[in-house]
Design goal:
Layout: H1 4-21, E1 25-27, E2 31-35, E3 46-51, E4 55-62, E5 65-69, E6 75-79, E7 83-84, E8 89-92, E9 96-98, E10 115-117, E11 121-128, E12 131-135, E13 141-145, E14 149-150
Antiparallel strand pairs: 1-4, 1-7, 2-3, 4-5, 5-6, 8-11, 8-14, 9-10, 11-12, 12-13
Length: about 150
C-alpha cells in the first residue's frame, strides 16, 4: 500500500503532461493574425501573420483566446476560432530544407518541389528514424530530415 500512492502520483503527473502536449495547436485558416494582446480592434498589435498549419505551443487559455509560443519561442495571442488540436502540424525551422520521396538521403528529391524555405508549414504524419513524413493540403507526401522542423 505504501508504494501504491507514489505510483499513483507519478501516473497522475505523467498523464496530465501527456494530455497537455496533446493540446498542440495548428492554424486552420489560410492565414491567421498572432497578436501582442487580445484586442482584435487594432492592427497595431499584430505580431505575425502565419500560414495554415503553423504549429503553436499552448501556454494558457483566457476566454476565447490562447496565449501561445511559436517556433522561434516568441509569445502571442491567437483566437480559438483559427486553431485546432485535432491533428499535428510542422514548420520548417531551418533556412532551407530538402524534401525527399522517402526517409533518407538515398531517396530522390521530390520532383516538383525539391526544397522549401524557412516557415513553410505542413501536416505532420509520422516519423521513421530521423525522418519526418509530412503532407500538404492536397495530399502530397514529403519526407524531411527531422531536426530541420519544429513540431509541438
Amino acid at each position: 500500500m505504501k508504494f501504491f500512492i507514489p505510483i499513483l502520483l507519478v501516473f497522475s503527473f505523467l498523464s496530465s503532461f501527456i494530455s497537455f502536449n496533446a493540446l498542440a495547436l495548428c492554424i486552420t485558416t489560410e492565414t491567421a493574425n498572432l497578436r501582442s494582446s487580445k484586442d482584435t480592434s487594432s492592427e497595431e498589435n499584430i505580431t505575425w501573420v502565419v500560414p495554415k498549419h503553423m504549429p503553436l505551443r499552448p501556454i494558457r487559455k483566457e476566454g476565447e483566446f490562447w496565449v501561445v509560443s511559436d517556433v522561434d519561442g516568441d509569445t502571442h495571442w491567437v483566437h480559438e476560432s483559427v486553431v485546432t488540436k485535432s491533428y499535428t502540424c510542422a514548420v520548417i525551422k531551418a533556412k532551407k530544407a530538402n524534401l525527399r520521396t522517402g526517409p533518407g538521403t538515398n531517396y530522390k528529391p521530390v520532383p516538383f518541389l525539391n526544397s522549401v524555405e524557412q516557415y513553410a508549414t505542413f501536416i505532420y504524419v509520422s516519423q521513421k528514424d530521423k525522418w519526418a513524413q509530412l503532407k500538404d493540403d492536397v495530399g502530397n507526401i514529403y519526407w524531411v530530415y527531422r531536426p530541420l522542423i519544429y513540431v509541438y
